[in-house]
Specification:
Oligomer: single chain
Number of strands: 34
Distance between the termini: 55 Å
Largest sheet: 5 strands, mixed
Length: 433
Amino acid sequence: MNLLPCALASALTLALCAPTLLTAAGDDWPRFLGPTGAAMVTESKVPLKWSDTENLRWKAEMPGPGASSPIVLGDKVFVTCWSGYGDKPGADDMGKLVRHLVCLSRADGKVLWDAQVPSAAAEDPFKGFITEHGYATNTPVTDGERVYVFFGKSGALAFDLQGKQLWQTSCGTSSGEKRWGSAASPIVHGNLLIVNANEESQTIYGLDKTTGAVVWKAEGDFGMAYATPNIVKHDGVEDLVIAVPLELWGMNPDTGKLRWYATHGLTANVSPCIVPGGDTVYVFGGFPATRSAAIKLGGKGDLGPSAILWDSSSSTYVPTPILKDGHLYVINDQGFALCIDAKTGKDVYRERATMGSRGGGKPFYASPVLIGDRLVCVSRRNGALVLAAKPTYELLSTNEFASDTTHFNGSPAVSGDLLILRSNKAVYCVGTK
């Protein structure tokens, strides 16, 4: 165990677990990957096809790029981006970097307000891997009363629903060894805002969401762990669970105290969020070799080797998979659509899913979203695929905004019968007209 005695948090997708963050209205998508982090809705009339001229309700130009995902609360859509440095060719003055929390009207995409936060500390330079995602990768979260953001070296901030900044708390200003930049999104648990500031301070914070004061913090050398914390409920107990290199941690979310841990084979970069399912947690990632594992929950302290149900090195993952009916679905960062048997870790199918001709590289960063029995998988450069969520590969449609050649790195939000997507250029609302 490489964790100091006081605390740590938990990772991002909650699948088949009871919602624990807040009770969201049917049209709300209040955090990364939806109300419980499971990235799924049971039913919606989101259309199967869309383009610049078909089923596009509105389009809203953004003041700069961003890799975060949009969230929705009532009649408002919130999204982050950045401007002033690295946002366009020739923008090389690091001192001008500004992050934005933009509020849009859900009805028509009109910008209601734009809260701007100047960089509070020296940023990592816009080169290397940071050019792949930039300085606005962390998705906002709302508790229905405020909107919270994590802006890396500029800290965590709270805003009211009219755009007034309420508080700002530093979560560190350091850089990881590789200077890859910040990625994890904040979550709300009770009266706490929980932030994984791995890159900035090797610390997970539990902040008072009303004042921004530090309630607890978990400090330790937990390496390259970029996933968003999340809450997993098992045997009536809520744990904060996060996958880090070589270990999975379960913490008390109210105090940050370590309850249990399990050892796995994923080394270095652990970016995808965990996928909880019943009494099992699925973890993905690793660098340079990638792995996946299924870990059985239950117990205290070291869960031991018997907790590892399977451990596989068969696939490369970047996005967080969807768990449905005993299968895990994802399109990996090599462009293969995968269906994995959740009991064994074996591939049920593996199909090349890339399409279009807008360059190579890593074609998928965004995590898929499940809408009923359909998977919406957004590629970076070549539009979105809609796949059937079943153990036989079936491509239902491909969709593209041909006028937008920038990257789509964020996962979409689902709000009622609307699908909301974002690129480095704009936010789009798809819905049947």
